[in-house]
Design brief:
Blueprint: H1 9-18, H2 25-44, H3 57-74, H4 79-94
Helix pairs in contact: 1-3, 2-3
Length: about 100
């Protein structure tokens, strides 16, 4: 894996922020719900990627992530920090043995 390029949450947030805004939080929430529905439909139909990404689980997963990032950006949430903070809470709450180690 060394030498490979990896997409970070920070990069995704900056990338999404560089695109023109499309509305307020309620717009992004509605789009997120719509994309979750499309993901559910793709999973139900078991639309795995065979050739292109169009109309597949892959495409719908990205759409869901995109609108989650849009919402985080709208509210000024640093997702990398939030992930680390929440994983600490989850580890204590559920007794996970696996440590979340940012940057790995």
């Amino acid at each position: 894996m060394d030498g490979e390029k990896h997409t970070t949450i920070s990069y995704l947030q900056a990338y999404v922020a560089s695109k023109p805004t499309q509305g307020a939080a309620d717009h992004y929430m509605l789009k997120l719900m719509e994309e979750c529905g499309e993901l559910a439909k793709a999973v139900r139909k078991d639309q795995r990627r065979t050739e292109g990404v169009k109309d597949t689980i892959d495409e719908e997963l990205w759409d869901v992530i995109y609108y989650c990032v849009r919402l985080a950006n709208y509210y000024g949430i640093d997702l990398e920090k939030t992930i680390a903070d929440k994983e600490k809470i989850n580890r204590e709450k559920y007794g996970f043995d696996v440590m979340f180690e940012p940057g790995k």
